[in-house]
Amino acid sequence: MGKYIAKEGQWSIAIVFILFIICWIFYSFSVLLFLLLLVLLFIFRIPNRVMVCNDSKAILSPIDGRITKIENIFDKRLGESVEISIKNAFYDAGTFCAPFKIGINDIVLKHGLFLCSELKSARIMNERVSILASSSGTDIILRVYAGSFDRKLKLDNLSYNLEVGDKMGFLINGTISIVLPKDTRIHVGLGDELKSGSLLGYLA
């Protein structure tokens, strides 16, 4: 089951499945429980997808979703940078993975609310985690923001050295931002729909 269904949803699916079977045996076929089971199976599915890249400078999309921001920013740790934000909707596959081979230097979790990500205040009030890492000698930051359907940021037990495609966690409808050096070559545009493993660009 773990190969096809994210572990974050296995308990919920198991409970609904047991209730569905009990209801079917002792009462009647429950359309509501059956539909709920199908929805949960869809939300927590793991697509049969392999992230492989032989170029150590390539940056791959860590999650399915739509690019909502490509913006030059100033980060106090990285200086002049470019930030790419990918919004993951509830109908997108929610597993997110390492976008390239990285070594994790620091992880900062900030507990917060679970507001709709369309609200301007969501980025500063929602639960979020910042992961400071390095790849090919270049410092980068991964910022993961919980969405309104998430009730806890679901991170895997992260090792401090990840290969491209290693699972990092799960989102139902959150946002992932990647903060990169300003001279990064970006190969995507605002509004592009992506699958995890799609090429975002190249480190300089």
UniProtKB/TrEMBL annotation:
The chain crosses the membrane at residues 12-44. It comes from the Bacteria. GO terms for biological process: phospholipid biosynthetic process. GO terms for molecular function: phosphatidylserine decarboxylase activity. Keywords: Cell membrane, Decarboxylase, Lipid biosynthesis, Lipid metabolism, Lyase, Membrane, Phospholipid biosynthesis, Phospholipid metabolism, Pyruvate, Transmembrane, Transmembrane helix, Zymogen. PANTHER family: ARCHAETIDYLSERINE DECARBOXYLASE PROENZYME-RELATED. This is Phosphatidylserine decarboxylase.
